[in-house]
């Protein structure tokens, strides 16, 4: 078994009285999820999350590391992957897509994210994040 680790965040904004989450569609697999990516050497989890969100979407964030949830899956046979997700508040709203990895980006109303997200484990994390945001 090989092990992979990525870090990212559930990025939100308040817009016209609603809360929206930032969702991305991956180029190759076509699944909808949250921005994230692999940890570089000597990088902390929060540094990875902020860097990957900026690289993939052009959004600058304020991270809330008191929210730290792990999604685990097997991207390929014999590979177990952990993705650490923090919560993050967007400082700017206009995204700029990284074309190599990302097919589409959209802000989705909190009530509709489960209909867009591809994987159940991501939907579970989204539910936890929603509770934190609306506290
Ligand atoms: P990273 O953004 O960490 O560099 P990546 O772009 O290499 O990752 P992943 O997003 O991990 O790739 O996707 C690799 C494979 O795992 C794809 O086939 C994808 O459909 C699948 N996958 C992605 N997220 C999940 C998930 N939450 N649960 C199950 N399978 C997933």
Overall description:
The model has no long low-confidence stretch (mean pLDDT 97). This protein has three helices and seven strands, in the order E-E-E-E-H-E-E-E-H-H. 23% of the residues lie in helices and 47% in strands. The protein starts with a strand and ends with a helix. The protein has one domain (2-133): Nucleoside Triphosphate Pyrophosphohydrolase (Alpha-Beta Complex). It has helices spanning 45-57, 113-116, 120-133, and strands at 2-15, 18-26, 32-33, 36-38, 61-76, 79-90, 102-109. Strands 1, 2, 3, 4, 5, 6 and 7 form a seven-stranded mixed β-sheet that branches. With 135 residues, it is α+β, with helices and mostly antiparallel strands. The structure holds adenosine-5'-triphosphate. The site of adenosine-5'-triphosphate (ATP) has 15 residues, from strand 4, strand 5 and helix 3.
What is the structure about, briefly put?
The protein is of the alpha+beta class. The protein has three helices and seven strands, in the order ββββαβββαα.
Flag low-confidence runs. none
Can you tell me the CATH class?
Alpha Beta
Give the end-to-end Cα distance, rounded to a whole number of Å: 40 Å
Helix content: 10-25%
**Radius of gyration over C-alpha positions, nearest whole angstrom:** 14 Å
Report the bound ligands by name, code or SMILES: adenosine-5'-triphosphate
Tell me the overall shape: globular
Query: What is the H/E string?
Result: EEEEHEEEHH
How many discrete domains?
Answer: 1
**How many individual helices?**
3
Structural class: alpha+beta
Overall average residue pLDDT = 97
Oligomerization state: single chain
């Amino acid at each position: 078994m090989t092990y992979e680790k990525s870090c990212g965040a559930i990025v939100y904004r308040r817009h016209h009285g609603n809360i929206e989450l930032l969702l991305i569609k991956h180029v190759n697999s076509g699944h909808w999820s949250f921005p994230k990516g692999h940890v570089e050497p000597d990088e902390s989890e929060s540094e990875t999350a902020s860097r990957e969100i900026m690289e993939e979407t052009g959004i600058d964030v304020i991270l809330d590391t008191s929210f730290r949830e792990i999604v685990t899956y097997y991207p390929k046979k014999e590979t177990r992957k952990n993705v650490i997700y923090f919560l993050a508040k967007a400082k700017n709203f206009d995204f700029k897509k990284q074309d190599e990895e990302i097919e589409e980006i959209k802000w989705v109303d909190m009530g509709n994210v489960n209909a867009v997200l591809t994987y159940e484990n991501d939907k579970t994390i989204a539910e936890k994040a929603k509770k934190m945001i609306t506290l």
